[in-house]
Design goal:
Layout (H helix, E strand, L loop, with lengths): L4 E3 L3 H7 L7 H15 L8 E4 L13 E2 L2 E2 L2 H15 L6 E3 H11 L5 H4 L10 H11 L2
Parallel strand pairs: 1-2
Antiparallel strand pairs: 2-5, 3-4
Length: about 140
Protein backbone atom coordinates (compact mmCIF):
# COMPACT_ATOMS: atom_id res chain seq x y z
CA UNK A 1 0.00 0.00 0.00
CA UNK A 2 1.40 3.37 -0.96
CA UNK A 3 -0.09 6.64 0.23
CA UNK A 4 -3.35 6.41 2.12
CA UNK A 5 -3.78 6.72 5.85
CA UNK A 6 -1.08 5.88 8.33
CA UNK A 7 -1.60 5.61 12.09
CA UNK A 8 0.76 5.21 15.00
CA UNK A 9 -0.59 2.38 17.21
CA UNK A 10 -2.18 4.70 19.79
CA UNK A 11 -4.00 6.70 17.12
CA UNK A 12 -6.50 3.89 16.48
CA UNK A 13 -8.05 4.60 19.89
CA UNK A 14 -7.57 8.36 19.49
CA UNK A 15 -9.56 8.23 16.25
CA UNK A 16 -12.29 6.18 17.92
CA UNK A 17 -12.59 8.74 20.72
CA UNK A 18 -12.26 11.88 18.60
CA UNK A 19 -15.02 14.40 19.25
CA UNK A 20 -13.85 17.64 17.68
CA UNK A 21 -11.08 18.66 20.08
CA UNK A 22 -7.37 18.96 19.28
CA UNK A 23 -4.03 20.62 19.94
CA UNK A 24 -4.59 23.48 17.46
CA UNK A 25 -7.07 24.64 14.82
CA UNK A 26 -5.02 23.01 12.04
CA UNK A 27 -4.72 19.75 13.99
CA UNK A 28 -8.46 19.69 14.71
CA UNK A 29 -9.32 20.43 11.07
CA UNK A 30 -7.08 17.53 9.96
CA UNK A 31 -8.59 15.15 12.54
CA UNK A 32 -12.11 16.17 11.52
CA UNK A 33 -11.31 15.56 7.85
CA UNK A 34 -9.73 12.14 8.47
CA UNK A 35 -11.95 10.85 11.28
CA UNK A 36 -15.35 12.57 11.19
CA UNK A 37 -15.57 13.06 7.41
CA UNK A 38 -13.66 9.88 6.58
CA UNK A 39 -13.60 6.99 9.05
CA UNK A 40 -16.95 7.85 10.70
CA UNK A 41 -18.64 8.60 7.36
CA UNK A 42 -20.65 6.15 5.29
CA UNK A 43 -18.18 3.58 3.91
CA UNK A 44 -15.42 4.64 6.30
CA UNK A 45 -15.09 1.10 7.67
CA UNK A 46 -13.45 0.11 4.36
CA UNK A 47 -10.66 2.71 4.68
CA UNK A 48 -7.20 1.11 4.70
CA UNK A 49 -4.79 2.20 7.42
CA UNK A 50 -1.10 1.26 7.58
CA UNK A 51 0.51 1.06 11.03
CA UNK A 52 3.50 3.34 11.32
CA UNK A 53 6.12 3.69 14.06
CA UNK A 54 6.61 7.43 13.44
CA UNK A 55 4.64 10.59 12.64
CA UNK A 56 1.49 9.66 10.71
CA UNK A 57 -1.54 11.13 8.94
CA UNK A 58 -2.96 12.52 12.20
CA UNK A 59 0.38 14.03 13.26
CA UNK A 60 0.86 16.02 10.04
CA UNK A 61 -0.23 19.47 11.37
CA UNK A 62 0.39 18.84 15.07
CA UNK A 63 2.24 21.71 16.77
CA UNK A 64 4.21 19.13 18.79
CA UNK A 65 5.53 17.35 15.68
CA UNK A 66 9.26 17.52 15.09
CA UNK A 67 10.05 15.84 11.77
CA UNK A 68 9.09 12.18 12.18
CA UNK A 69 8.93 12.59 15.96
CA UNK A 70 7.31 14.63 18.71
CA UNK A 71 8.33 17.07 21.42
CA UNK A 72 7.36 14.39 23.97
CA UNK A 73 8.68 11.41 22.03
CA UNK A 74 9.36 9.22 25.09
CA UNK A 75 5.71 9.50 26.17
CA UNK A 76 4.50 8.79 22.61
CA UNK A 77 6.79 5.76 22.32
CA UNK A 78 5.41 4.41 25.61
CA UNK A 79 1.80 4.96 24.46
CA UNK A 80 2.53 3.28 21.12
CA UNK A 81 4.21 0.33 22.81
CA UNK A 82 1.26 -0.31 25.11
CA UNK A 83 -1.28 0.10 22.32
CA UNK A 84 0.67 -2.04 19.85
CA UNK A 85 0.85 -4.85 22.41
CA UNK A 86 -2.83 -4.57 23.38
CA UNK A 87 -4.04 -4.49 19.77
CA UNK A 88 -1.42 -6.86 18.36
CA UNK A 89 -0.16 -4.26 15.89
CA UNK A 90 3.27 -3.94 14.34
CA UNK A 91 4.88 -1.46 11.97
CA UNK A 92 3.72 -2.09 8.43
CA UNK A 93 0.47 -3.90 9.27
CA UNK A 94 -2.45 -2.83 7.07
CA UNK A 95 -6.06 -3.12 8.20
CA UNK A 96 -9.35 -1.46 7.45
CA UNK A 97 -11.00 0.86 9.94
CA UNK A 98 -13.73 -1.78 10.35
CA UNK A 99 -11.11 -4.43 11.19
CA UNK A 100 -9.44 -2.02 13.60
CA UNK A 101 -12.72 -1.37 15.42
CA UNK A 102 -13.37 -5.10 15.67
CA UNK A 103 -9.89 -5.63 17.11
CA UNK A 104 -10.38 -2.79 19.59
CA UNK A 105 -13.74 -4.25 20.65
CA UNK A 106 -12.21 -7.73 21.14
CA UNK A 107 -9.06 -6.64 22.97
CA UNK A 108 -9.73 -3.42 24.91
CA UNK A 109 -12.29 -2.64 27.62
CA UNK A 110 -13.03 0.98 28.66
CA UNK A 111 -11.20 0.66 32.00
CA UNK A 112 -8.10 -0.63 30.16
CA UNK A 113 -7.57 2.93 28.96
CA UNK A 114 -6.43 3.96 32.45
CA UNK A 115 -3.30 1.87 31.82
CA UNK A 116 -3.05 1.99 28.02
CA UNK A 117 -3.41 5.78 27.85
CA UNK A 118 -1.61 6.67 31.09
CA UNK A 119 -0.17 10.17 30.79
CA UNK A 120 -2.46 11.26 27.93
CA UNK A 121 -4.06 14.63 28.63
CA UNK A 122 -7.21 13.63 26.71
CA UNK A 123 -7.96 10.66 28.99
CA UNK A 124 -9.41 12.85 31.74
CA UNK A 125 -12.10 14.19 29.36
CA UNK A 126 -13.68 10.73 29.20
CA UNK A 127 -14.32 10.92 25.45
CA UNK A 128 -12.31 7.80 24.62
CA UNK A 129 -13.91 5.70 27.36
CA UNK A 130 -17.34 6.83 26.23
CA UNK A 131 -16.58 5.99 22.58
CA UNK A 132 -15.17 2.60 23.58
CA UNK A 133 -18.25 1.88 25.70
CA UNK A 134 -20.41 2.76 22.68
CA UNK A 135 -18.36 0.39 20.50
CA UNK A 136 -18.88 -2.43 23.01
CA UNK A 137 -22.63 -1.75 23.07
CA UNK A 138 -22.74 -1.80 19.28
CA UNK A 139 -23.76 1.85 19.07
Amino acid sequence: MTGGLTFRPHHFLCALGYRGKGYSDAFTANMTQIVTNGLFANGGDHTLIRVRAAADSLCAPCPKRRGEGCTNQAEIDALDGRHAAALNLKHGDVLTWGQAKMRIREKVRPDDLDTLCKGCKWLELGLCKSALSDLHRGA
